[in-house]
Amino acid sequence: MTHGLDVDGLKIRAAASCDAPLFAALHASCFVSRESPEGIGRWNENEPWNESTMAQFIAGPRTVCLIAAIAGDEPVGFLIARAAADEAELLTIGVLLGHRKRGIGQALLREAVAVLRPGGIRQLFLEVEETNTPALSLYRGLGAVPVGRRPGYYENGADAAVLRLDLQARP
Ligand SMILES: CC(C)(COP(=O)(O)OP(=O)(O)OC[C@H]1O[C@@H](n2cnc3c(N)ncnc32)[C@H](O)[C@@H]1OP(=O)(O)O)[C@@H](O)C(=O)NCCC(=O)NCCS
Prior knowledge:
By secondary structure, this protein is α+β, with helices and mostly antiparallel strands. The protein contains four helices and seven strands; from the N terminus they run βααβββαβαββ.
């Protein structure tokens, strides 16, 4: 689960209901906001990523909600994926600035795959703004391939790239 990892003591765990405020805070810190446009990463602003939404994801019967924490249980990243039938979609993933490019994103994604695959999920879809090089590198590094685009998906008019990771083809 930790290929290429450069973090001592990284732990990845499933979120509990009490983690909803933490998820909302991590999301706000990891993503661009109108107030802080220098951040990296953009989300579909039609989705309200607040505590209430996060609580619903965590309680969802077919969602995978993970937290990455480093030594001392300091949360540094998170991931939410949702399954339907034999497919799943990565809804969001983020690692705090200052902890990026150390393998934490990859460890989160690998753990999500490890949870989804035994449940019969065959493919994981990933949507990302076409200019989001870090996320594209992460996804493609794990073997995801581009399968389409969603023009104007983001509020700023940017297009989304859609990638697919074949879970059954992987060891
Ligand atoms: C995308 C994100 C989660 C990646 O997390 P991370 O912990 O930095 O990723 P990793 O360290 O596991 O890196 C995974 C791969 O991507 C590459 N990568 C990461 N950041 C990169 C960057 N800025 N430029 C180029 N490649 C990058 C790494 O080199 C690594 O490739 P490798 O395995 O060949 O070495 C993080 O950049 C982030 O939180 N971005 C903001 C939120 C976002 O955009 N989320 C995705 C859309 S939902």
